[in-house]
Amino acid sequence: MRWLAAILLICLALPLWGQEQSALARIDPDRSSLIAEGKDRGKPRPLELRLAISHPVPYRVYFLDAPPRLIVDFREIDFSSTEPAALAGHDLVPGLRWGRFRPGWSRLVMELSGPYALATAIQSLRQDGAGGADLTLRITPVEQAAFKPRGNAMSALRDLPTPARVASGRTARATDQPLRIAIDPGHGGHDPGAEVGVIREAAVMLGFARELSEVLTRAGYEVIPTRQDDSFVPLEQRMTVARGGQADLLISLHADALPAGAAAGLSIYFWDQDSDDRAARQLALHHDRSDLVAGLDLTGTDDSVADALMDLARQETQPRSEAFARFLVSALNRSGVTMHRHPVKGAAFSVLKSPDIPSVLIELGFLTDENDRANLFDPEWRRHTAQSIASAIGEWAKDEAVRTSLSRQ
């Protein structure tokens, strides 16, 4: 089922290309190349891989380490008629190979001379009338600390508190220390999120996150932003930022797009891997699409040990996430903020997977709904919503203190 979810996720990461092609795509070596930018001074240089293929295909890109290498998985390209040595510029890297690696999937592996990061990944229809598509991947050298090779399920367990600390709750801190709230504006950088005309979800959420952060700071909370500009932050790194700041609560902000009439109004989500809500499944695919391109697919592992450990940690964390969602609904109701008819739902959003930090994702509205769109650009609506979130945090914190006190008796 995880591979099925990943496949669906990849497909939604691409534009609609028309009717599905029945034949496997093939590479055109005469139109494909690997290019290095700048002069060769003995150091890693930015690289651009251009692949001309007979028709568009779903793909995902990620990095592996030891040795560093770029991996591109396709569904599916028939590489059997072309050797890697036929690619112009193949000798710019230590090694290049490709081929079919499992039913329905083919893979390109490019060994690298050092750590790199993905700068752009674009697949576009060819404009010269010849048909087919061009896939262009640009990667740039980075310092080792900035290298983000593909994670696995175990990586979500890094820096977890000890079992005793989990049991006592992360909010059990000195009373003179403010609660730490991680604010996560969704998308960013090469992933703009939902787009309606010139409106980009990533920009709208960054603006609201700044307003919310100001309200929370004035209310006495410490804010931990996962991004502060229009930059791309992988989902796993967002959790890492929250954990590194010892966040007591993570709030991810979105304003997505669904087919007209499919959804409207503010909604609040908590982690539920088994959610069967159709709209939630669609949104999960949209939210996670960027990490397939960046190579940090949190769903693509089969580590039963890690899954079991995370499920164990969530037994204590999950009820706290759901409790905050209920407090938030109450605060929003008091402020008269319009919500979805079923405002609290479970969903398999990867950013909510942290097993040790209570986490919720707030869909502030849907850019595809006219009323929601107007709300998102209404200063009064944003102010009421931000203040409601702050009020809910305060009520939730009091409930946490009582719960922690009872757990110590």
TrEMBL record:
<dbReference type="InterPro" id="IPR050695">
    <property type="entry name" value="N-acetylmuramoyl_amidase_3"/>
</dbReference>
<feature type="domain" description="MurNAc-LAA">
    <location>
        <begin position="239"/>
        <end position="394"/>
    </location>
</feature>
<dbReference type="GO" id="GO:0008745">
    <property type="term" value="F:N-acetylmuramoyl-L-alanine amidase activity"/>
</dbReference>
<dbReference type="Pfam" id="PF01520">
    <property type="entry name" value="Amidase_3"/>
</dbReference>
<keyword id="KW-0378">Hydrolase</keyword>
<dbReference type="GO" id="GO:0030288">
    <property type="term" value="C:outer membrane-bounded periplasmic space"/>
</dbReference>
<dbReference type="InterPro" id="IPR002508">
    <property type="entry name" value="MurNAc-LAA_cat"/>
</dbReference>
<protein>
    <recommendedName>
        <fullName>N-acetylmuramoyl-L-alanine amidase</fullName>
        <ecNumber>3.5.1.28</ecNumber>
    </recommendedName>
</protein>
<dbReference type="GO" id="GO:0009253">
    <property type="term" value="P:peptidoglycan catabolic process"/>
</dbReference>
